Fold:
Amino acid sequence: MSRDPFKLSTVDDRSLWVSSGGMCAKCKTALILNDVDAKVNIGERAHIIGKAKGKGKKGGPRREFAEKFGITDENIDSLENLMLMCSPCHHTIDTNFKAYPPQELFEMKEKHESWVREQLFKKNKAIVVVHKRKNPMPVDSILLSKETNCLLLDAVSFQEEFTDFTEEGWDTAKKDNEDFFRKVVNSKRENEGTYLYVFPLSPIPLLIHLGCLISDTTTAVVHQFDRDTQLWCHENVNPDKNVLMPEVKISEKAHDKLVVTVQVSGNIHEQDIKDAVDDSFQRLNIKIDEPKLNAVLYENDVEVLKSVFRKEIYRLQNDNQYSEIHLFYFGPAGLAVEIGRCINQNMLPEVHLYEYNNRANAKYQRAITI
Structure:
């Protein structure tokens, strides 16, 4: 079999990818991302009848059977002679070609692609969206692929570390988010009927802004990384306790500005807010009992907090018609994306997002305005 890398850019490669369900035809490992960089994948395009001519070491695996199976120089690169495989399975079949004759591989290909066609009607189809701009270490794509219970048809990934926390840096990052989201939209258009499977590990303002771009009208499943287990969570059931019910407090006097604080992973102190926001403001405080890291990981907890945020912010905006909103958030990355999905720019005034830095004189610095 040929060892060329699988390229998503060509029509035939796209067809091979979709017909294979983004999985290895032999072991069914999902092959969606590259461990080092962004968009590429860990799959290989494999020839059933080997491409090289000759016999023995000079010929490709099973090349001597080309005439029997109607394979010529003209159609050897056709979809009929190609399988999508992971690198280990590709190597196994190539180095043990007597154990894997052509007929068996053609049958394996047909059986796998038939299974994929059935699954497309039964299971969710997904586009993986990885937004990781914290530290340069890339997401482990192999682990990621094994944690998604669906057919992965494409991946859009942004894994460039964000280090410029100046005003200009945030402006550039906001534009980068918008460019990244356009890639997500293009992939969604190419793969109709798919969910977005979002895996976020970036500075909070970037994730809230990303959530706003995705919006709550797009079908998306947002995962949360559990640092204790080193796994991504999205299951409905919280194994440790019941769904968290947050406490909601609203200061009595209305002002032109609304400050919203969401306290999940830790506490947000009043003085830090005053250091960041000039003039008087009304405050909406949403806080769980005993905020701590890893407090909110699961879907039901996230949905409760998201619902409370959406209900209260739009109710208060309708009653008081604020000219601006300042959002201070201390919580997990997945919930940050979901909070952002609640922000409708047509129904709310400008929303200012803040980045926390414990070593700065003013702990919260304005980052992005939606």
Observations:
- Residues 1-9, 34-41 have pLDDT under 50 and may be disordered.
- DSSP finds nine helices and 14 strands in the chain.
- The first helix runs from residue 11 to 19.
